[in-house]
Design goal:
about 300 residues; alpha/beta; Rossmann fold
């Protein structure tokens, strides 16, 4: 990795340095609120582009941030589902990537502020994602004009919320982009071992702890927690983008194969040498800007044009 990216990934890891002590109870001087504030402060360093503005909205009981581009020349709507292992993260830290998508698409972007574990374990996050999507449908926005995107836990939720919507009999959105998806909480992919040390952010013991915290006793192979086990038949086209250095590489590839084997149109992009959710760093990383543009193009070309 180049030096700016190495520094950025180190800062990302540093923002979560107190997470394990707080979850394990070994440090009573720190709190989950402090961990979340540190994480959001780091994420917020990735500034939005010029030409977008932000509004706070209520998506049927789920608070959210709406990103509005100055030039809105598309009637599609993107729901961006943030990551953070279902434990940290809030829209205030995602104005950079949300703003980039709004500008690239010329469209509105909603970032739901879904409930987090351990206070609200599985399936609260998926329930909130589903409720936010239902609210869009209730506003009269056709499903064919809606797309999902998200990274890490949010990348898994791109698929999981679609599965939950299908189970409820709702019309499905037109497309999804799963960035670095945390798609298998069993962590059985080969890259969980052979990428150890290459991944600058994650370790398998850390991911195991985060998964246990989120699941709170639910099985890691629950279809709505690990979409590699879900009934994905009938889902819309999905783009999976994963970095080759990630522990999650093999399970993201498994997700793409699972989608393909169940007759879902899927595009899989494996980006050599890229770390987890590299898209955040488009201000200095050419591969991040390119990946964002590729994913925005996928959405634009897949969502029903001019209908």
């Amino acid at each position: 990795m180049n030096q700016p990216l190495t520094q950025a990934m180190s800062g990302w890891a540093d923002s979560l340095v107190n997470l394990v002590p707080v979850l394990s109870g070994s440090d009573e001087t720190a709190s989950m609120g402090q961990v979340r504030a540190s994480y959001t402060a780091f994420q917020a360093q990735q500034k939005p582009p010029q030409g977008v503005r932000f509004e706070e909205v209520d998506m049927g009981g789920v608070p959210a941030t709406l990103v509005l581009p100055e030039v809105q020349d598309s009637d599609l709507v993107l729901v961006y589902i943030h990551g953070g292992a279902y434990i940290v993260g809030e829209p205030a830290g995602y104005r950079g990537i949300g703003g980039n998508y709004a500008k690239l698409l010329g469209a509105r972007v909603y970032i739901p502020d879904y409930r987090l574990a351990p206070e609200h374990p599985f399936p609260a996050a998926i329930d909130d994602g589903l409720r936010a999507y239902e609210w869009l449908l209730e506003q009269g926005i056709p499903a064919r004009k809606i797309a999902f995107a998200g990274e890490s836990a949010g990348g898994a939720m791109v698929v999981s919320v679609m599965v939950a919507a299908k189970q409820k009999g709702l019309p499905l959105p037109a497309a999804g982009v799963a960035i670095s998806p945390w798609a298998n909480l069993e962590h059985t992919g080969a890259s969980m071992t052979n990428r150890e040390g290459l991944d600058p952010l994650n370790t398998k013991p850390l991911l195991d702890l985060l998964a246990r915290t989120f699941l709170a006793g639910a099985l890691p192979n629950h279809p709505l927690a690990s979409p590699v086990f879900a009934d994905v038949t009938g889902l819309p086209p999905i783009l999976v983008q994963i970095g080759e250095n990630e522990l999650m590489l093999s399970d993201a590839m498994r997700l793409a194969s699972h989608l393909a084997e169940n007759r879902v149109r899927v595009n899989l992009e494996v980006w050599p040498h890229m770390p987890h959710a590299w898209h955040f760093f488009q201000s200095f990383l050419p591969e991040a800007e390119q990946a964002l543009r590729e994913s925005a193009r996928f959405i634009s070309e897949t969502v029903s044009p001019n209908q």
